[in-house]
Amino acid sequence: MAPKEIQRRHHHDSGSSRTIKPHEYRTYPPATDCATSNYPRLIHTRETWIFLQNAHAHSKGHNHEHRYSHNDRDGAHHGFNVDFEVRDDGPRGRSIYATHPMPKNTNVYSGNWVVKFTTPDELVNYLKLLPHDLQCDVLLWAFPSGSNEHAYVALDEGSFVNHGETDDSVNLDTDCRTTRDVEQGEELLEDYGHFINKSSGWFKDIRKKAWQDEDKGSSLNSYVSLGAPELSGGSRIIQMQEDDDDDYIGGSMHPAGQEWQSMAVW
């Protein structure tokens, strides 16, 4: 898709994640114990998201890094169009919460850092560049969508938008606009059933090797349950705040085509 202009966002990190700097690329063995390793489900820092984004570009043969270095505190590394916070203090695990009231039809999120994998090799080559815990997270967030069962994942905090179990709890549509008025502090939720395929293809095989989860059929409940780890310690919060400046995000990371309809999870 063509490049687009979005609002630059300024944010403050709470230090709840290890920092992984750009250029630190090496080959890692494939994760095979995501479900049993008890790896920490962190609320990642901006630097880690940029590492994930840069690693994807590297896996595609692009030599350029994210246009914002890890020292640039003002770069827009995510696709949210509103202020938000990430917390890990509820039954769904890491999740997105509104920091202010939003009227119906608010454009909450644009898929600036949603990427698509069309073949198993594309996904495997990307995962090889990630340490164990990030491999597990990416395969937890990723989902198959569209008639060709391509796999998608949001390489930003969009991956923390969770599934609403009831119609009343869902407040985002497939375009990531609010379906009703949203109150401050409310969890932002969507219906995964509108865009996740009942995959039995290559993505499921790759994910199952990492997670070693039992085949529980097509139930979305079992898919969602993996994103709600047992809580340990207090809640972790990252507050995202707006800046009035505009800046440019290149279009190479935008989802291509019309198969992708929404963001990933957890």
Structural class: alpha+beta
Q: Could you name the ranges where pLDDT drops below 50 across 5 or more consecutive residues? A: 1-20, 67-74, 216-220, 225-266
Major beta sheet summary: 4 strands, antiparallel
Q: How much of the polypeptide forms β-strand, as a percent range?
A: 15-25%
Topology:
Layout lengths: L3 E9 L33 H14 L24 E4 L7 E4 L15 E4 L2 H8 L4 H10 L1 E3 L4 E5 L7 E2 L25 E2 L11 H10 L8 H6 L11 E13 L17
Parallel strand pairs: 7-8
Antiparallel strand pairs: 1-9, 2-3, 2-9, 4-6, 5-6
Helix pairs in contact: 3-4
Primary descriptors:
globular; alpha+beta; about 270 residues; three-stranded antiparallel β-sheet; disordered C terminus
Describe this protein's structure:
The longest helix has 14 residues. The protein is globular and about 45 Å long. The chain is built from 5 helices and 9 strands; from the N terminus they run E-H-E-E-E-H-H-E-E-E-E-H-H-E. Helix content is 18%, strand content 17%. The strands form 3 sheets. It has a 4-stranded antiparallel beta sheet with strand order 1-9-2-3, with no helix packed on it. It has a 3-stranded antiparallel beta sheet with strand order 4-6-5. Helix 3 packs across helix 4. With 266 residues, the chain is an alpha+beta fold.
In short:
Helices cover about 20% and strands about 15% of the residues. By secondary structure, the chain is of the alpha+beta class. The radius of gyration is 17 Å and the shape is globular.
